[in-house]
Amino acid sequence: MPTTLLLLADTHVPKRARALPDQVLRAVEEADVVLHAGDWVDEATLDELEKRSRRLIGVYGNNDGPGLRARLPEVATEVIDGIRFAMIHETGAATGREARCEAQFPDADVLVFGHSHIPWETTTPRGLRLLNPGSPTDRRRQPVCTLMTAVADAGTLRDVTLVPVDRAHGAQRSQA
User: Fold this and answer.
1) pTM
2) H or E element: which one contains 121?
3) What SS3 class is residue 24?
4) Which among 10, 52, 116, 158 has the fewest CB atoms less than 10 Å away?
5) pLDDT of residue 141
6) Spatial contact of 30 and 4, defined as CB atoms under 8 Å apart
7) Which of 67, 64, 41 has the alpha carbon at shortest distance from 136?
8) Which InterPro entries does this one have (predicted)?
9) Chain segment 18-57, per-residue pLDDT in tens
10) What does DSSP say about strands 156-165 and 120-123: parallel, antiparallel, or unpaired?
11) C-alpha–C-alpha distance, residues 150 and 3, integer Å
12) Are strands 145-153 and 33-36 parallel, antiparallel or unpaired?
């Protein structure tokens, strides 16, 4: 049975956005697995995604304080539908990224990362797929805010899609 994935990073709530956009929360609820590559900034965002997602895998980023670092690892590894995923917040400069990531994650099929807020999708010579979903709340120099969706299906990652995020419709934080 295929597994639907939602890739997020750099949500930066409440510093860059008061709350996650409704579109992001809907995507969290629809995905089988949510992968968040760090820079949550507040623990309430982690709580919200834990509550709304079927399965959440996350790491901490450079803007995440002691509370988030106590709850999340720096690096996460997980096999999802036969695909070996690794996730880390920061991979360094774009120049040389593929070689660094191949060396650091020799057993992974897919590496999810964040930090730059710049969407990224490449495959290294060895076949490691590198994915950065951008940011759903802080587009920086990008034309729009983004997230990424994909499907893990019997050892194959397919339908990787960069999705623009409409920040005009922000969510209110759940009170539950």
Assistant:
1) 0.93
2) strand 120-123
3) helix
4) 158
5) 86
6) yes
7) 41
8) Calcineurin-like_PHP_lpxH (IPR024654), Metallo-depent_PP-like (IPR029052), Phosphodiesterase_MJ0936/Vps29 (IPR000979)
9) 899 999 999 999 999 999 999 999 999 999 999 999 999 9
10) unpaired
11) 8
12) unpaired
DSSP letter at 38? S
Structure-block tokens of residue 135: 């940011």
Taking residue 141's Cβ as centre, other Cβ atoms within 10 Å add up to: 7
- CA separation (Å) from 31 to 52, 85, 135, 148, 171? 10, 16, 18, 11, 18
The amino acid at residue 27 is: A
Q: Are 97 and 91 in contact (CB under 8 A)?
A: yes
Q: Mean pLDDT, the chain, as a whole number?
A: 93
Which one is the CATH code of 3-165: 3.40.50.2000, 1.20.1200.10, 3.60.21.10, 3.30.70.920? 3.60.21.10
Please identify which residue in the block is written with the tokens 């997980």. 78
User: What number is the average pLDDT over the span 84-109?
Assistant: 96
